[in-house]
């Protein structure tokens, strides 16, 4: 029996349901998964140093932690670091298309409770989340807010919670909405809002990995294409920057006038969505808002246009409306679906509209997730040590943790910086 399975009153262990069949059926794939985890471990030095300290100090001893983040190698390493800190850990996917089965198999072989499978529907994803939560966690690492929402449907589980950490913009918005309505049952630390998260992960992580995923999935050029980026927030800025660097002509669509003006000052063409659709070779959404690209856009897009979504949920591109318009649907390559419109135009949807850099690629680079997951690990430790001082609302990551991760990142890049002068004067030498 692996760690934590079966009921054991003395250790506080709880019975957990059997893992999904894919994990049980694929123990041989665990070898490949372990290789992937070892590679990221070598490239996540901040998390590796935390693993060493946690193994000595065991700050999570006696606690159960559930992790729901896109289950690929970097997330698996975070789960192992939390276990090194003394926690019992259950893991589930956070998206139907983002789990790597070989990585899930590797974690299952390590004795973690794994409820994650690639290529499931939303109902099965939810079932797996519920199975992971049957572990009765004290702490949750969430990505998009689904676990936090499910915990609120089960008051007895929510009552046992010490706190949660939220990884992404969409989950932060959901937690904030709950806090504003006074219904949040436990503290939630907003990892996404730490500077070491959004400035690195959303901008540079998304900026690189979206184009990596699109290029490897389509085997097409970005250079010379008109790329329309919808949403010029942190992710959209990174995607626009790297598309321009790859030689694309970039058009930005924004509804916030300040961000639209910012995009124009940075040299991008700015247009309303429907006008931009008429010239898009590739349209990419990054708004976090459902229905950003809806039915009207599908009538305006050019023949051959590619559609991809970098936001957390597939709902940014209304694929149901797109499917309803299609008179023919055809799989053209892995993760590329062709949809023929009644007027003969073909539109191409990548990764079924799911978060493209993870559905069609490996997600953010390891060095980027090193800072995001160092923030997660330190914030989980913070919740474990200080939950008694934290009210049931949203909280920023403590500034000291953000600075600690920034210093560690600079050290990992072998960069030194100056310190501010002790009595820095404002103004001239008077
Ligand atoms: N792909 C990834 O790896 C990854 C990484 C981090 C975050 N995310 C997700 O990406 C999404 C965006 O995150 P972010 O941090 O950039 O958010 P953000 O809030 O910084 O930016 C979103 C932008 O979209 C704009 N917007 C909203 N509705 C719009 C519309 N209809 N048309 C045009 N613009 C619109 C907003 O004004 C805002 O500027 C979220 O769902 C987030 O969870 C994805």
SSE layout:
Blueprint: H1 21-25, H2 30-42, H3 45-57, E1 64-68, H4 73-84, E2 88-92, H5 101-109, E3 113-115, H6 122-133, E4 139-142, H7 146-152, H8 155-159, E5 163-166, H9 169-180, E6 188-190, H10 195-218, E7 226-230, H11 234-245, E8 249-253, H12 257-265, E9 269-270, H13 273-277, E10 282-285, H14 295-300, E11 306-309, H15 319-325, E12 328-333, E13 336-340, E14 346-350, H16 356-359, H17 366-386, E15 394-396, H18 399-412
Parallel strand pairs: 1-2, 1-4, 2-3, 4-5, 5-6, 6-15, 7-8, 7-10, 8-9, 10-11, 11-14
Antiparallel strand pairs: 12-13, 13-14
Helix pairs in contact: 2-4, 2-5, 3-4, 3-17, 4-17, 6-7, 10-11, 10-17, 17-18
Bound molecules: nicotinamide-adenine-dinucleotide.
- What is the CATH superfamily label of the largest domain? Adenosylhomocysteinase-like
**Main sheet: strand order:** 9-8-7-10-11-14-13-12
Residue share in helices? 40-55%
CATH fold assignment of the largest domain: Rossmann fold
**Strand tally, please?**
15
User: CATH first level of the largest domain: which class?
Assistant: Alpha Beta
Q: State mean pLDDT (0 to 100 scale).
A: 93
Q: What amount of the residues lies in strands?
A: 5-15%
> Quick one: overall form?
globular
Decide which structural class fits the backbone: alpha/beta
Q: Tell me the count of domains.
A: 2
Rg? 22 Å
SS element count, helices: 18
Separation, N- and C-terminal Cα atoms: 74 Å
As residue ranges, the low-confidence spans are 1-14
- What small-molecule ligands were found? nicotinamide-adenine-dinucleotide
The main sheet comes to: 8 strands, mixed
Second-tier CATH architecture of the largest domain: 3-Layer(aba) Sandwich
């Amino acid at each position: 029996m692996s760690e934590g399975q079966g009921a054991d009153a003395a250790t506080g262990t709880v019975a957990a349901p059997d893992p999904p069949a894919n994990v049980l059926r694929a123990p041989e794939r665990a070898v490949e998964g372990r290789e992937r985890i070892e590679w990221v471990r070598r490239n996540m030095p901040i998390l590796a140093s935390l693993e060493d300290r946690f193994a000595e100090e065991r700050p999570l001893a006696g606690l159960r932690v559930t992790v729901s983040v896109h289950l690929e190698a970097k997330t698996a390493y975070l789960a192992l670091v939390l276990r090194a800190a003394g926690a019992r850990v259950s893991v589930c996917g956070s998206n139907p298309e983002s789990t790597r089965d070989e990585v899930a198999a590797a974690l299952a072989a390590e004795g973690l409770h794994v409820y994650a499978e690639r290529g499931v529907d939303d109902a099965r994803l939810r079932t797996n989340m519920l199975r992971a939560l049957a572990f009765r966690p004290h702490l949750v690492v969430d990505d998009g807010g689904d676990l936090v929402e499910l915990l609120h449907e089960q008051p007895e589980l929510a009552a046992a919670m010490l706190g949660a950490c939220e990884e992404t913009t969409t989950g932060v918005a959901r937690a904030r909405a709950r806090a504003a309505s006074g219904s949040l049952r436990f503290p939630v630390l907003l990892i996404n809002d730490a500077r070491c998260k959004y400035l690195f992960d959303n901008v540079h992580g998304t900026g690189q990995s979206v184009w990596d995923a699109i290029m490897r999935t389509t085997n097409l050029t970005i250079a010379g294409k008109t790329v329309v980026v919808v949403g010029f927030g942190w992710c959209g800025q990174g995607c626009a920057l790297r598309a321009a660097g790859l030689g694309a002509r970039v058009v930005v669509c924004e509804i916030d006038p300040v961000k639209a003006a910012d995009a124009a000052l940075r040299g991008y063409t700015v247009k309303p969505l429907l006008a931009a659709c008429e010239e898009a070779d590739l349209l990419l959404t990054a708004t976090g808002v459902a229905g950003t690209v809806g039915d009207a856009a599908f009538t305006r897009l050019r023949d051959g246009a590619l559609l991809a979504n970098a936001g957390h949920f597939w709902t940014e591109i209304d694929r149901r409306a797109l499917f309803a318009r299609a008179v023919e649907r055809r799989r053209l390559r892995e993760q590329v679906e062709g949809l023929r419109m009644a007027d003969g135009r073909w539109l191409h949807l990548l990764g079924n509209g799911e978060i493209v850099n993870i559905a069609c690629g490996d997600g953010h680079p390891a060095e980027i997730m090193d800072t995001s997951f160092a923030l997660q690990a330190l914030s989980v430790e913070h919740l474990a040590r200080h939950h008694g001082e934290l009210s049931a609302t949203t909280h920023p990551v403590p500034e000291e943790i953000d600075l600690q991760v920034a210093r560690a990142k600079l050290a990992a890049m072998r960069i030194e910086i100056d310190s501010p002068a002790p009595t820095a004067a404002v103004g001239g030498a008077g």
